[in-house]
Specification:
This protein is mainly beta and 126 residues long. Helix content is 0%, strand content 44%. This is YmaF family protein.
Length: 126
């Protein structure tokens, strides 16, 4: 099965490393969109962490979920990785939609621990 995809590639390499990032602008003829996401983790081992990011793109107008990956704020001498997949789209009364997300950070810190996080994305952004 072939699915037409359009987008652009940007070179992020330097003399020692070479990499590219692919930015998809449409999937199967439908434009893609992203969502903002932010929040505060649970309070564990005497602190919490803030996080703020964007989801990965997904096609508009079809049932879908989004991948996400971000790093928390630097608190108590360390950060944590947050990554996962949102739940399905939840329609908003005035149009658009949001997604719920939840999970646990990676384990880190001088006293190894993780934090719980959860929330809902912002409305879709093109």
């Amino acid at each position: 099965m072939q699915i037409p995809v359009s987008g652009f590639v940007m070179d992020f390499g330097d003399d020692d490393h070479h990499s590219h990032r692919l930015y998809i602008t449409s999937w199967d003829g439908k434009p893609v969109h992203v969502h903002s996401m932010s929040g505060v983790t649970s309070f564990d081992v005497g602190h919490s962490h803030d996080y703020s990011s964007w989801t990965a793109p997904a096609p508009s107008g079809v049932p879908h979920v989004h991948e996400y990956r971000t790093v928390t704020s630097f608190n108590a001498g360390h950060t944590h990785l947050i990554q996962g997949t949102t739940g399905p789209a939840v329609p908003l009364p005035g149009g658009g939609h949001y997604h719920l997300f939840e999970g646990y950070t990676t384990v880190n810190g001088s006293t190894p621990h993780s934090h719980a996080y959860s929330g809902r994305t912002g409305n879709e952004a093109g």
